[in-house]
Each structure stands twice: as structure tokens, then as C-alpha cells.
Amino acid sequence: MQDDPTWQDPQQAHELTDAGVTGQQIDFDLNCVRCGYNLRGISAIGRCPECGEPVETTLRPDLLHMADPDWLGKLRKGSNWLIAAIVMNLAMIPIGMVIGIATVASSIGQGGTLPMPALIFLSVLGLIITGVYAVAVWNLSEPETDVFEIRTSCKLMRWLIVPAMLIGIVTEFLNISGQTPLLYAAAGIDFLTSIMMLVGFLAGLWYLRHLADRIPEPSLAKQTMTVYWGYLVAMSIAILFGTGMTLFALASSNTANPASAAAFGAIGLIMCPVGLALLIFIIWWIVLMFRYRTRFTQAHEIAMGQQRTAYNSTPAI
Questions:
Q1: Residue 105 pLDDT more than 60?
Q2: Of 258, 268, 274, 311, which sits with the fewest C-beta atoms within 10 Å of its C-beta?
Q3: Is residue 2 over pLDDT 50?
Q4: What 8-state DSSP symbol labels residue 31?
Q5: Residue 312: its pLDDT value, please?
């Protein structure tokens, strides 16, 4: 085990964590949690030369850079995949809107559904995005602690988002039959999966806020919660009105009249600002994920440095 440079003796790890008690110097790159100054060579019971923050604050055992490097590596990998998934999902919004509006408009009075090429196209894209989300969620939702709230949020991420996306793709094929009962069933299932994804993503944002507290970066934690509440409100409205539009389209499929067109116009006016707000919060989320990725990478590098230091200082047997 000691031949592995990433192996860390538990006693060495304990001494590093308790460096403020022993008074040893910091002999690895460690940025001050307040100003970012490199504390290498500074006494562990001293203060940061740049801002005066006690070095012991940076050595708190609950901070992210004191965690297991393997786990931090998963966070970094998961953040990369999540950025890719969100960007792909973002690109799906205008595509889905164009196809959806065209389909709804043509279905009034005709009972039409999604054309087969459009259905296959959306399903293939959905499968690809689901796969990317699966890799992202699986890496990000690996809990490091047994704290109930944290472990619960990780489980919600893992067992709601990906299954909901897979079910959502399957329900698209119910539209192939064009039979009204199956179309109503698909609308109901879509509503359920939308709720599942909403809860899963909210759990993910709550978990990211917890990680921001451990960086620590209060501004990142605050902005994460702003996105949390904005996404909750905007997506909830979008789910309710989107489901209502679908049901109304099904009910009006055999009765073309000016009232139906007016109703769709009114719903469209409501959905436009909601869609814009949702787009803003999703873009904001992407920006935050780039910041999280940077912090996860920095924490991983520091943790690896600590392990190398502990390994090199371990007496040969």
C-alpha cells in the first residue's frame, strides 16, 4: 500500500488535520480560504501574511480540500459531464419549441401528433442527453458523509433524474398510435416525470450549495440558492402550463374554432416570459458549474499534494 503515491496513512492524515495543534509548518501548496494566498512555509498556528486569517481556519477538517482526493476527482468529473448535459439540454429547448408549436398548431382540428421523423430525432437526442446526465449524476451524487440530509439529496439526484428522462423518452412513443386514451396517458406520464426531474435537480442544487459552504465560498452558495428558487418557480409554472396546453390540444383536436386559437395565444403569452426566465436561470446554472468545476479541481490538487506529502514523510520500513 505504501508503494502507491496516492496512499495516505490515517495517522498522517490526522496529523495534517490537527496541524494547528502541533504547530508544524505547511509544506504543501495550500491557498488561504479568505484571500487565496499560498500558505506554504507558514506555521500552522500562525496567520495568513496577506489578510491575517488564522491558518487553522484553512486547515479545518470539514473543508473540501481536506476530503478524499478520489471523491473530489468524481466531483470534478461529474461537473464536467453536467456542464455538457445542461448545454445539450439547453440546445434542445429551441428545437423542441419549434417542433412542439408546429405540431400543436397542426393538431387542432386534425388530431395529429408528432411526425415520425421528428419523434425519432427527439428520441435519439433524448437518449444521448440522458446518457450524459447519467454519468454526471452518478459521479456528483456519490456522498462522502452519512449525514441524512446530504445522503438523501444524493439519492434523489441519482434515482429521480435519469429514470425520469428514460421514462419520458419511452412515453414519446405512445404518440405513435394517435389514439386519444394513449395520448392522455402520455400527457399524465410526462407530467409525473417532469415533477421527478424538478425534484431531482432541486436536490442537486441543494447539494451543490452544501459543497459551496465547504469550499468555503459564501457568494457561490448564495447564487446557487438564487438559482434554486428561480428554477423552482419558473419550472413549476412551465410544467403546469405545458401540461395544460397539451391537454387542451387533445381536447380541441376535433373542434377547430377561433376560441381555441385565442386560448393558445394566451397560453403562449404566459409561457414566453416564463421560458425566458427559465433560460436565464439555466444559463446562470452553467456559469456556476464552471466555478464549481474550478473549485473542485483546486481542492483535488491540494488534497493530492497533502497525500504526496504524507507519503514522502512516512518512514520506510
A1: no
A2: 258
A3: no
A4: B
A5: 62
Q: Which amino acid is at 269?
A: L
SS (H, E, C) 155-193: HHHHHHHHHHHHHHHHHHHHHHCCCHHHHHHHHHHHHHH
26/144 same-domain check: no
- Residue 52 in grid coordinates: 491575517
Range of the domain at 14: 10-60
Task: Characterise 271 by phi-psi region: left (phi > 0), alpha (psi -120 to 50), beta (else).
Answer: alpha
405545458: which residue's cell? 242
Cell of 259: 376560441
pLDDT in tens, 169-226: 777 676 665 566 777 777 788 888 889 999 999 999 999 999 998 888 889 999 999 9
Whether the per-residue pLDDT at 246 is higher than 50: the answer is: yes
Residue 239: all three cell numbers together: 410544467
Sign of CA dihedral 90, 93, 96, 99: negative
> Using alpha carbons only, what angle is made at residue 149 by residues 145 and 151, rounded to the nearest 5 degrees?
45
310 lies in some domain: no
Phi, psi of 21 (to 5 degrees): -85, -40
Over 90: is that where the pLDDT of 104 sits?
A: no
Percent of the chain with pLDDT over 90: 19
Q: Is 165 exposed, middle or buried (0-12, 13-18, 19+ CB in 10 A)?
A: buried
Please report whether residue 170 resides in a domain. Answer: yes
